[in-house]
Design a protein that fits this description.
alpha+beta; single chain; 7-stranded antiparallel beta sheet; globular; Alpha-D-Glucose-1,6-Bisphosphate, Chain A, domain 4
């Protein structure tokens, strides 16, 4: 049973205010998630901006179109610097996702650090090797494409 970490860095040609406004809005999650994931926010009456303690529920269809419930909590928010979401219900034994922003003169470096542990022990490790890690990389590649197009 292993623990994994994925780190992605992306430099965005945007101001910190503009990028923060976009990524800190729960309603924009669907826009940066590939269609094949079947991602739908099921929480009702979400506020425009996230806050610590906020619970967001989703349906995702990561494999064979089978819907899974995913519930995350926004555990930390430090305005225009970072926020952290953690899975409360979902497919992973552990999911901890840090979203970190660092402003530069010509834009913002956005760093995502995902710490995760697949379910099912040894079988989850095999699934990570063959499927999970590739799918996570694919999701972040899609996010990069969407964000680069949005903030040209």
């Amino acid at each position: 049973m292993a623990f994994y970490q994925l780190e992605k860095n992306l430099f965005i040609n945007a101001g910190i205010d503009e990028l923060w406004d976009f990524i800190s809005s729960p309603s924009n999650l669907k826009e940066i998630t590939p269609d094949h994931m079947g991602f739908d926010i099921t929480s009702k009456n979400l506020p425009e901006k996230m806050y610590p303690g906020m619970i967001i529920s989703y349906k995702v269809r990561p494999l064979l179109g089978i819907p899974l419930l995913w519930v995350t909590e926004i555990t930390h928010v430090f305005d225009k610097q970072f926020f952290i979401d953690e899975q409360r219900i979902g497919p992973y034994t552990l999911w901890h996702h840090q979203h970190i922003l660092k402003p530069y003169e010509n834009g913002v470096m956005m760093t995502d650090i995902v710490s995760y542990k697949p379910p099912f022990g040894f079988f989850g490790d095999i699934a990570n090797w063959f499927f999970i890690k590739k799918q996570l990389n694919s999701i972040f590649d899609y996010r990069e494409k969407v964000l680069r197009n949005k903030f040209k």
